[in-house]
Amino acid sequence: MTAVDAVPGRMPVGTDRDLGGRTVTRFAVRQIRRGALVVVTLLAGMSAMVAATYTSTVGDALDAAALAALAENPAIRTLFGNPVALDDPGGFTVWRTGTVLGVLAGVWGLLTVTRITRGEEDAGRWELLAAGRVPVASLVARHVAVVLAVLLVAGFGAAGALVAAGTAPVGALLHGTGLALVGVFSAAVAALAAQVFATRQAATGAAVALLGAGLLARMVGDGVPALGWLRWLSPFGLVALVQPYAANRLLPLVVLAGAATALLAASVVAARHRDVRGGWLGTPAGRRPRLWLLGSVPGFALRRLVRPLAGWLLGVAAYYLLIGLLTVSMTEFLADNPRFAELAAQAGFGGLGSVDGYLAALCSLLAVPVGLFAATRIAGNAADEADRRLTLLYGQPVTRLRLLAAEAAATAGGTVVLAAGAGLAAWTGAAMVDAPLGIGVALAGSLNVLPVGMLCLGAAVLALGWLPRAVALVGALPAAGGFLLQVTAESVGAPAWVAWISPFTHLAPVPDLPPDWPATAVMLGVAAGLTAVGAFGYQRRDLLG
To answer: Does the N-terminal or the C-terminal CB of the chain have fewer CB atoms within 10 Å?
Structure first.
């Protein structure tokens, strides 16, 4: 017998498939590289900053009596987690930044996975890929694997930053691993949801709801000792049970890693048994047409806003309802422990010893979700344009400026509803515990953050006109970037002009103090200017896609 030579010019099937798989992996890396850099930098940078400034900000202030008072307060445990090893720079860093960074890693992993898998599939960009030698299951696995690699790098980067700041290596490694696994678990949930649901919106909504339920379970488990078992059902609770720099437990991380692995395996199996652009739960084909609010351009913009606004409002209102319920407990604790009030003031949350000061400090945080809501709504418009969903609409007698004006107006109205809903929820919670907080005062505090939301809206419209592929990033800068800049500047003692750049510096602590009307007018003027420049660019550039 003689061997048969391969056909000249053709590679073996296995080699061809491997080459296609590597190409898909490189493409996935290109899709997420900017966001990956931001996440890695934030996790490592914030961890290092808090640990390095521990001595100057906290020092020897946390004696045994203060630690006992802190651990016994249910409001503190609910909002920030169970305080453990606060006399150690690493333990304090875990308590102060652990939940925030875990949420950041989880949300980024979740949104990125649904964007580069189900989002690309919805846009029809996977059809040619799936028609080749790389099956759908391999496409899903390779895209998700790239996201998981970034999350692992971010977690270990945070661990390395803590070690460099002088904390214990074991605690740093466990904390970094926990942050990475929270992100990995969230990405795995999103990967499975992207196979179950046939649209990106449904997959993202289901994954976000599950992640929010996990955070709520952690808060309840930490705040109510009798329900402490709930922490074993939450990725955030499992990470808290590790107690880095104290107990250094490994079992919760093993449980979290096992759950994430099971979800990842299920997502790959589910991808093998569905059609391209399909899902296990498909959209009903025989439903009656839904024509409400489709009679005009403003109505169309309002229709596109309703569902996302309802989801954001539900999450924000639930959090501020909890803030209201904890009003009495938090203010009494800080009034009895002035040193903790001083530490909170150094972190940018002054006046927490009174009801009005407490609401003002917590309402300043509301600017972040309000601004992100505005940015993501305009980013959704850019995504629809890139996916060619607006091409036929612009072929009708509908100008770009008309549609943009309707979208911007609807988004601005949505930010008002979101802020007002948070204020009403805080007032409701405070009323349930007989806290002296009026409804008008609560609304004044929540609506005070609207200038930051308008800045985010203006920045997003500016990017839509001139940098349409970076709308979400540019739009989020005034809120997320401004908040991080203010906290960093106050933590490291940066020059006053650095903090002055942040719009949060110019927000008066309403209702503890009257609004700063000149600063409000300036921020609204800047937002209007950004919107006008963005609209000019949007009218002149070519359509995406």
So the answer is: N
